[in-house]
Here is the input.
Amino acid sequence: MKPVKVGVLGLGTVGGGTINVLQRNATEISRRAGREIIVTRASARNLDRERICDTQGISLTIDPLEIINDPEIDIILELIGGDTLAKDLVLIAISKGKHVVTANKALIALHGNEIFEQASAKGVMVAFEAAVAGGIPIIKALREGLSGNQIEWLAGIINGTGNFILTEMRDKGRDFADVLAEAQALGYAEADPTFDVEGIDAAHKLTILASIAFGIPLQFEKIFTEGITQITREDVNYAEELGYRIKHLGIARKTEAGIELRVHPTLIPHRRLIANVDGVMNAVLVKGDAVGPTLYYGAGAGAEPTASAVVADVVDVVRALTTDPENHVPHLAFQANSIEDIPILDAEEIKTAYYLRLNAEDKPGVLAEVTRILADHQISIEAIIQKEPHKGTTRLPVIMLTQMTLEKEMNAAIAEIEALDTIHDKVNRIRMETLG
Ligand code: HSE
Here is the structure.
């Protein structure tokens, strides 16, 4: 059979890695796909830049449209990133009847509903395994491997840069900014690294996971998102002392009232496997009603781990080239006419446990006032630790763990606690999950 011709848009970390993997493993890949797969054309903004891949034999251009318009090209790999130009190019490619493989989480999270609708209308596939958790085949697992289950919840470390920062802070006492700079140099961080540290990148990925898990539309705007910039070494150490690790988690949970969608730093018991996922590694814990808890682990960023997922998608597309469109695996796991608008809960309706750190005046009755406020809001305390006063002051850190409560009760309690004369500074609150 004729080789399948692929056009690559973007020759950065992921584009370069993808070309390397396709070239190095060409024999194994064609044995799996049933056809030879060759990259014949590629585009980049600057053709003079040094690349991580060998582009010999690939026709290069600065104009991605030349590739999309080339009737010889069967599959377009969108590896540019961002959600403006990439969106236009993907929609044009679809309109020309090309299949698309993308690693672009922002594109899918923000515009996936429209893109999938157009792709289905044209009978083409848009594959996006590399958009979530780099090399971990989590889309495949959730969309196909777990299709017999009702997914109850999932929780994931889905941003490698953030996990790298938290790990280095804990293990080596390194500075936040210093570790972030290293993640950028290694090609892990987003073009705008605030996407990593403020949880936006994780929220893009959680949007996609939740949609596939529950058969709901992609709804990035409804995710409650909190970053890791407020996490101090002090909190990391107190959490350790109490038997917990702080991880930046994306959590999606189906409750009777609706679906919780949230990204925030989270204390988790250190004995959980996922609490021991360090550095740039990612992991996603998925709880299905039939299978129970399952854990997927691997490199969440980097050239070849991401390329691994892109190439797997290319193989899937090649295998399906001759199938009828109605027999393709649905983009969001559920048939398009079965996607349901299940309500997404407001942040205030989230139910979770909490770690609180207070800077309290060292005098009688202070803790009694704090515990009274918590009791007034039906919040039960699980543990309290009072530390030595800060050097040369009469103020001391008090750390509390609470049982599960509604976020709105906690917000109200914290506002009252912060208004006390005997409590200084803001209360530092970190949500806590047992993931049991
Ligand atoms: N910036 C992302 C991360 C890249 O650090 O996980 C992979 O999506």
Summary: The pocket of L-homoserine is lined by residues 134, 159-161, 188-190, 196, 201, 300-301 (CB under 6 Å).
